[in-house]
Design goal:
The structure is a single chain. The protein is built from 14 helices and 22 strands. With 579 residues, it is of the alpha+beta class. It has four domains: 137 residues, ibrinogen binding protein from staphylococcus aureus fold (Roll); 124 residues, no CATH class; 106 residues, no CATH class; 117 residues, no CATH class. The strands form six sheets. The protein has a six-stranded antiparallel beta sheet, with helices on both faces.
Length: 579
């Protein structure tokens, strides 16, 4: 993990510099495993993010916006009760471990002064945030353990105990020459393994850099001295850190307190603070992962419905294919009628001249021996009429199924594009109104305000809006667009409705091209793919009665051919606070 003991020590110093003595103004819990403390100091306010997520455990100041649940969780309300108004007096690190303790001077419900500890254990899947009192008893924590846990118990009222100590040397307190001796005498196949198994507090990035420097400089000196010197140099860098985002030869990123250059690192990018660095490293990746987890249930439901609709369509197409020979049934009935005098009751088949064929060859027609010749003819006519009816019904159902498939694919795309809890709630409500989900019996305590459409501004200054979901697509197309406004949508690909607001002016070609690229970017088309985008005046786009949300019909349109370019489109986006 990149957030090692050395980086955490740098973060500890950063928190002390920026928030020592600050008071807790507000407490939020945007997700199950994340807490945000709003700290107010002298003339400034900071947001301190505490995350116990296994893939992104960290403590940092953040400038990112997080959407909070409509009703705060129980732990959040407890932290508000205990910490709001408390003053941050200490930030402690347990040796070189990834454990940071925030110490607060607070007041209890009787007004007495108390000391509270918010312990941040940042250890992968075992990460936790634990609030304890001055007697070291747990008040509560984000992840409780079972009372039968063989490692340690984390429950309210239990005395807090540190995680089991690993038998490794502390890089912050052990002299470098002792570490070098222990590493070089370790019974391991390589130096990298020896470092990771012997030393606590250094990440794989630091280990690789240490080995790289050691191998490049250990030509004349003895090995322990050389390794100790290189370790000492790296520890000096931790005292004057340079927050760096590291990029390897495959484009993957990592971070550390210095600009590493050991392979596979090929470049680095420096930041003013570790908090800015962590915002850049975790921000977009964790946001996408968080939204993926939140939308998991809805995505699974939509995918199951999609699979069911596809199976039903396939079965209907197979049934329709079986009706292709229905004319042959009518011909058989006519041929039997024409040869009633040659057929006897009890015959299992009859050989007749097929006068429907150009060659008038003889064919054999199967008969039901329990029926009279006339009844056999009527049986073929009945099967013919049944097949004809099936064609009409199946064609209609297949068309409806294809429309349903297009609609559900658009919903699946909406889930991929969802950028907030509000977006997910809108999609859930849409599926309820369309009959795919059942409405919950419990009433929502808080009513959410739907997010505004995504806004862009063309190079020519024209306002462009994009629907976030099918309901918003309808609102844009049917109610908001008018006059000379133009409507854009990808051809034969699920995507959002895009409206260019002309404001009575003629829309220039450059704006048309940019709007088409925006429509392609907000579709299921892959980045870099060539896409056809239909466009026409919005007043010519119609919504049929009873059509599903987002479903429209149009004709007399033009088509633009563009390439999907997400980065280029992003430059046209207008910043929208709160979204």
């Amino acid at each position: 993990m990149a957030l090692d003991g050395l980086v955490l020590s740098c973060l500890k110093n950063e928190i002390l510099q920026r928030a020592f003595g600050a008071r807790v103004d507000k407490v939020y819990q945007p997700s199950k495993e994340e807490i945000i403390l709003s700290l107010r100091g002298v003339g400034q306010e900071e947001k301190l993010l505490l995350s116990a997520r296994s893939s992104a455990a960290r403590v940092q100041f953040t400038k990112l916006n997080f959407e909070n649940p409509p009703v705060p969780p129980m732990l959040c309300m407890l932290l508000r009760k205990c910490l709001v108004g408390a003053r941050l007096t200490k930030v402690l690190q347990t040796d070189a471990e990834r454990i940071l303790t925030l110490v607060f001077d607070a007041r209890n419900e009787f007004g007495d002064a108390v000391e509270l500890h918010l312990i941040c254990e940042l250890m992968g899947r075992n990460s936790n945030l634990i609030l304890t009192d001055e007697q070291n008893k747990i008040i509560d924590c984000i992840k409780r353990t079972d009372a039968t846990s063989s490692v340690r118990i984390l429950l309210p009222g239990v005395r807090y105990a540190l995680p089991p100590v690993q038998d490794r040397l502390d890089v912050l307190s052990t002299p470098p020459h002792e570490i070098a001796q222990a590493v070089l005498s370790a019974q391991t196949p390589d130096l990298f393994t020896a470092l990771t198994q012997t030393v606590a507090g250094i990440s794989p990035v630091v280990c690789r850099q240490l080995i790289h420097n050691y191998e490049a400089s250990c030509s004349s000196q003895d090995r322990p001295t050389c390794l100790a010197q290189q370790l000492e140099l790296l520890l000096q860098k931790a005292k004057a850190p340079q927050p760096s985002l590291l990029i390897d030869e495959n484009g993957k990123t990592d971070f550390s307190f210095f600009a590493a250059d050991a392979p596979p690192i090929v470049s680095s990018r420096q930041y003013d603070s570790f908090s800015d660095l962590l915002d850049a490293f975790y921000g977009e990746r964790e946001f996408k992962e968080l939204m993926r987890q939140k939308s998991l249930s809805l995505t699974k439901t939509v995918n199951n419905i999609l699979a069911r609709v596809r199976r039903r369509l396939e079965n209907q197409r197979q049934e329709l294919k079986q009706t292709e020979q229905r004319e042959h049934l009518r011909e058989c009935g006519e041929l039997i009628k024409a040869n009633l005098h040659l057929i006897k009751t009890g015959d299992t088949a009859c050989d007749v001249v097929n006068y429907y064929s150009e060659n008038c060859e003889q064919i054999r027609i199967a008969l039901d021996p329990a029926l009279t010749p006339a009844q056999n003819a009527q049986k073929y006519f009945k099967e013919y009429r049944k097949a004809n009816t099936a064609v009409v019904k199946l064609t209609e159902r297949i068309e409806q199924g294809q429309q349903e498939l297009v609609y559900l694919e658009s919903v699946a795309l909406e889930l991929e594009r969802a950028a907030s809890d509000g977006d997910l709630n809108e999609i859930r409500n849409e599926l309820i109104s369309e009959g795919y989900l059942k409405r919950s019996n419990t009433k929502e305590k808080v009513r959410r305000i739907a997010a505004a459409p995504i806004e862009y501004r063309s190079s020519d200054g024209f306002k462009i809006l994009v629907g976030r979901n099918n309901r918003q697509n309808d609102e844009l197309t049917v109610h908001m667009a008018s006059g000379r406004d133009y409507w854009f949508h990808t051809k034969h690909i699920p995507g959002a409705h895009v409206i260019v607001f002309a404001q009575g002016e003629e829309i220039p070609l450059r704006t048309v091209e940019e709007a088409a690229r925006i429509a392609a970017a907000h579709s299921k088309a892959q980045d870099g793919a060539a896409v056809e985008v239909d466009y026409l005046p919005a007043k010519r786009v119609k919504k049929p009665n009873g059509a599903a949300a987002g479903m429209v019909v149009y004709e007399n349109y033009q088509t633009a051919y563009v390439t999907v370019d997400q980065a280029g489109v992003q430059q046209l986006r207008v910043s929208q606070e709160g979204n």
